[in-house]
Amino acid sequence: xxxxxxxxxxxxxxxxxxxxxxxxxxxxxxxxxxxxxxxxxxxxxxxxxxxxxxxxxxxxxxxxxxxxxxxxxxxxxxxxxxxxxxxxxxxxxxxxxxxxxxxxxxxxxxxxxxxxxxxxxxxxxxxxxxxxxxxxxxxxxxxxxxxxxxxxxxxxxxxxxxxxxxxxxxxxxxxxxxxxxxxxxxxxxxxxxxxxxxxxxxxxxxxxxxxxxxxxxxxxxxxxxxxxxxxxxxxxxxxxxxxxxxxx
Length: 248
Prior knowledge:
The chain has 248 residues and is of the alpha/beta class. It has a domain at 47-187 and 221-234: ABC-type transport auxiliary lipoprotein component (Rossmann fold). The protein contains 6 helices and 8 strands, in the order E-E-H-E-H-H-E-E-E-E-E-H-H-H. The protein has helices spanning 65-76, 87-96, 105-115, 190-201, 213-216, 218-234; strands at 47-51, 55-56, 82-84, 119-129, 135-144, 153-154, 168-169, 179-186. Strands 1, 2, 3, 4, 5 and 8 form a 6-stranded mixed sheet that branches. The protein has a two-stranded antiparallel ribbon with strand order 6-7. The chain starts with 46 loop residues before the first strand and ends in a 14-residue tail after the last helix. 38% of the residues are buried.
């Protein structure tokens, strides 16, 4: 069974940001009863995963990294076969270490081990434009325990130090990610809007805005972006041909 228990969104939007308060259902609107929409898990298998607080490489200060991590963890809980450790437990481990975020791939594995998890999702917000139409860039890596394998190295930890945000290598390493994905979600692009419509189609309580709820509210737009990047991580298209088996 998928399990998740996280905090509510607590971030406060900055001046000029989208401020749309969405009711749980407008007057006369009855939410469509649907099953929880699960994300197919084609490549990762059953795992217990943690989610680290978001790394902020966007240059902005309009979001709270822990709150964005809560959204990521909430969407990750819909990945088939995955149990998610609450972000609050990750923050507690980091606090005991005197740190606020993951500092390196080896640190990611250290935190995952301390939590008794099979792996930890480390992700960076690389672009963040909350004004309409919104733009969000995400770079995500899943670090975990496995038997060998040959995986590219996409390290969001290094994003702030490079002229271009992503560098992909081929060096075999014990700290290479099990899966990785990066994408910029620009709401002016038809592909992104189509993805939002498909995402909203299976969900209830859309309210008077309908599927456009995920464009009108930055919180909901971020939730969609997290969902979409998790889909890419679990698709198998971003993994090497060598199976990544978890070990304890």
